[in-house]
Structures are given as C-alpha cells and as structure tokens.
Amino acid sequence: MTSATEPIDVALIGGGIMSATLGALLKQLQPEWSIEVYEALTDVALESSNPWNNAGTGHSALCELNYTPEKADGSIDITSAVKVNEQFQISRQFWSFLVGEGDLPEPDHFINSTPHMSFVWGAANVEYLRKRSEALEGHPLFAGMEFSDDVDVIRQWAPSLIPGRAKNQPIAATHILAGTDVDFGSLTRNLFDYLTKSGVGLHLGHTVTNLTKKRDGSWRVDLAVGATSEPHTVNAKFVFVGAGGGALHLLQKSGIPEIKGFGGFPVSGEFLRTDNPEVVAKHQAKVYGKASVGAPPMSVPHLDTRVVDGKASLMFGPYAGFSPKFLKTGSYLDLFKSIKLHNLYPMIRVGLANIDLVKYLVGQLLASKTAKFDALREFMPDADPKDWYRITAGQRVQVIKKDAEKGGVLQFGTEVVTAKDGSIAGLLGASPGASTAVPIMLTVIDKCFPAKKAEWAPKLKAMIPTVGQQLAADEAKAAATIGATAEALGIHA
User: Fold this and answer.
1) Separation between Cα atoms, residue 128 and residue 170, nearest integer Å
2) Is 288 helix (H, G, I), strand (E, B) or coil?
3) Domains of the chain and any CATH numbers
4) % of the chain beyond a pLDDT of 90
5) What HAMAP family does its record include (predicted)?
C-alpha cells in the first residue's frame, strides 16, 4: 500500500459537474490550496454529467411545469419556479466570470440559445397553462414569456408539434426565447481543464473504497487504483463527495451521524434520439409537457433540441424504469447495500406512501415499444419510428429522508449533507442538479468554511455580483443581470 502522509487541503471525489464547480470556486477563492480529484472511471463527465445522460435544459423553470403546481384553490404556486430560476442565474454569473477571465473557452462550447416551451393538450390542461402564464406574467425572471392557444402561432414556434394533430384538439403553449441548452459534459471537461492548468491533480481510475476520520480532524481516503486495484491512501483536511449515485454509500462509510436516516431510491430511464437533419431542422426548442399521474417530476415528458459537440439532435423522453444500480456503471447490489437499520423505517414508509409511483414504474417497464413511441407522437404526431433510436439515460437516485410526521419522505431534488465540523460534505439527489451546481456548491462553502466567509466575500461578490440577493425583488437588477450574462455567454436575454 502506498500512502501520502502530508495532508492535502481538499479531496474531491467524483469527476462530475459538482466536483468541477466546487474545485473552480475554491481555486478562485484560495489559489494556494492543494486540491486533488479522484474519479473511478477513465474520464470525467461519464455518468450524470454526460450530455446524453441528462436533459441539459439549463433548468430555469421557464418550461418545466412540475415547478408550478396547481393548488387546491385552483391558483398556481410559482415559489419553486422562482427559486430554481434564481439559482440558475447564479450559475450563469459564475460561468460568465470564468469566460471573461479566459478560464473557460468560448461559451458556445457548452451553452446555446434554445427557446423553452410548455405544451399541453386537453381543455383542463389548457386552462392550467393559461393560469400559469398569468401567474408568471410580469415577473422579472420570466420576462418575454408568451402564451397562445392558437394553432398557427404554435406552429410558428415549433412546426413539428402540429402536422397530424386532430384539428378539434384543444392545445396551448408558452414560448420564451431566453431558454438555453447546456452541454454539461463539455462544461465539466472545460472546468477540469482550467483546474489542471491551475495545479489541481486529476486522478482517473481511482476508486474511493473508504473514508475514515482521523484524530487530528482530517480524513484518510482509501483508494483502489487502476485495473489491479492497487491500494493507496491520502489524507485530506476537507473531503467533498460528489460521486452522484455513489455518494450515499461513501457518506455511510464515513460514519458521520448526519447521514443517518438517509436512503436512496434509484430510477433509471431511456430516451429516444434522432440525428436525422431533416427531422432536427423542424424542431428547434425544448418542449416540456405534463407528467403522468404518479410519475416522478424527473419523468416529465419533453422533446428537446440538444447541441453536443456543435451538432444538433433531438431527444424525447424520459421513459422511466427501475434498476437497483446507483450508477450506470454501478452494481446490482447498490440498493441493497445502502439499506441500514437507521434508514430502513423511512424507506418502508416511503414505499407505502408512493404506491402510485410504483404503479407508474411497473407500467413503464411493461410498456411496449409501440406504446412508448405513441408517447412521442403526442408531441410530434407524424414522427416516424425509422428516424429514432433508443439511448439509456443516466441513473438517478432520489433522496429518502426521515420525517417526523410521515416517518419518511421521497424528496425530488438535491440535499447537501455536511458533518458538524464541516470537514466533509456530500451531495445526494438529482434534478435540477447540474443547472444549479454553483448555488449548491456555495451552500457547501458556506456550511464547511464559515471562518472564511468574511475573507472570501469580496471575491465572491466580484465573481457573482448578486450573491446573497434576490433578483425577483428587483426588476431593474434582474433585467441588468440577465442581460449582462446573456451578452457574456452569447445567448438571448
């Protein structure tokens, strides 16, 4: 066994967008710190950050209807939509700063303007979308959104949605030019390029096998290196576990009391994809519909323009499924190994309370290829099966956590788990994930480095001018901020 006795300042576990973002923030705030990254696979961004493993929406709630639920009184709750949009604006500001500093390449390598649309059919859904549009109308973060139930207008926005559709079917859509498509795989690789050029060590083929707290407060990180799994250890003053679905297991191995009660529910998925230039040319937007009853928010159907490595394709889905793996490259034992005495009861309570979800997943697993393609035809009625092929999406592990009233709840989102002393932190959960990586990592910094808050505040302000503020409360500042980042990133404001 080889061992590095001198502790490094920061160990980042996982080569995805979260570790890349935290590394970039810390390198800007404390350039002299030693930072090392450990990734089990042969390259970075091969799991959830891979562009074909996620929707790449640039989640800003411009089109995702699950962020604007209808309340019992019929009104629309826009609280989550505003929060997610605020978070994405923070990410945009940090990316803009790095582009301006020359630390990221030309922004079209990772972000492109792509209109965002919501699209529904049926009288009840049309009325819901109308009320949603009215609730967001005039809001500083949703300026420029248009609503229409006119077929000719919708045809102008997204021509592929109309041909073959019944003329008497009620339909409606919203459209906003300020939407984006983000290639988080490219962004992640670009961030790691910046980090390695700045002296950060990137270690591929390094699997973390255990985390042990030492008496001096640092962490012993045990590793298996390469194809031979040669053992190696490093000591780190601070550890971030950004290993996607693998984070739960590693945080459990760390033994920190803060992870007790947490469990995970894995959801797999598939997309349909086409690269046919004629089909792609007819649809240049991200179009989100309404989720089926019982479906998790991450399973909201959407027909997306994707721009990866400069080439446009279309992707439709996701079709949810089930696998006990926590990562695409994981083990079929992942779910079972994660079950502990401290999280067994919350997991049982969640299972009993989410029968609709179970029924939905079973239905998806049993659905025929024809039935799955019919779901695409609800968006694109004249879609031809010969133009489309199936791809496997990334694994998502939804957070299960203790709840005083219900015993356990299934949480659709992300959860930052930190030790009381701030020496270790990890991220659990999924969407909106990558789009909100910067504010999530700012939360990690705030929780784990409180003594540095005053020292780092000026630099954070320079990188992210509105950090700690709410753009929703200031129309002029919102417009100025969105405009400035749009210009820096070469996208529509």
Assistant:
1) 12
2) strand
3) 2-479 (3.50.50.60)
4) 81
5) MQO
